[in-house]
Amino acid sequence: MNVLSCSINTLKGLYDISGVEVGQHFYWQIGGFQVHAQVLITSWVVIAILLGSATLVVRNPQTIPTDGQNFFEYVLEFIRDVSKTQIGEEYGSWVPFIGTMFLFIFVSNWSGALLPWKIIQLPHGELAAPTNDINTTVALALLTQWPISMRVLPKREDFTKPLSLSFRLFGNILADELVVVVLVSLVPSIVPIPVMFLGLFTSGIQALIFATLAAAYIGESMEGHH
Hints:
Helix content is 68%, strand content 4%. It has 226 residues and is mainly α. The protein has a two-stranded antiparallel sheet with strand order 1-2.
């Protein structure tokens, strides 16, 4: 009963956090729901980039792999290694889940540094990387809660893991973009460039950390289930 109460309180806390607003936001009214349009637009762009890239590479595979094929094969092997290391011998069915999380977060993070979101004018607010919004990171973190719920006897700390995952990703991406904005406003010529390259590196690291921790939590939950 205590575990169930802890789970409900944690999920309620995450829901409350996702409702926190900082600055102005642009919303769409769809039926009886208010949709955060900024996050939805940028997420669609990221998904379109991933689907478009995968379609171009996979639709006509070559016997002698092209550079695109080599890249996607390398990414697949990398994700398999991470999943196998963290989950164990039953990692196979979890590779698509871990891979999707990693690629979405990786491209989302990089889009914040490489795509000129700010030139697109909105009635309210401005566009930014999807992972720059707490709603996205909370949603991604809650996805890792599903395999954890398979435990016969969930541990109390299982329900705090999504909270730490969401804040870690959100905080790092937001801080990186804020640093670049401040430096550009102070010294717009040279200094921001190396900081932007450092941001690309740390963005990739954050995607790896999120995927690795998600796989580790899945591995722990599977051990508890057995």
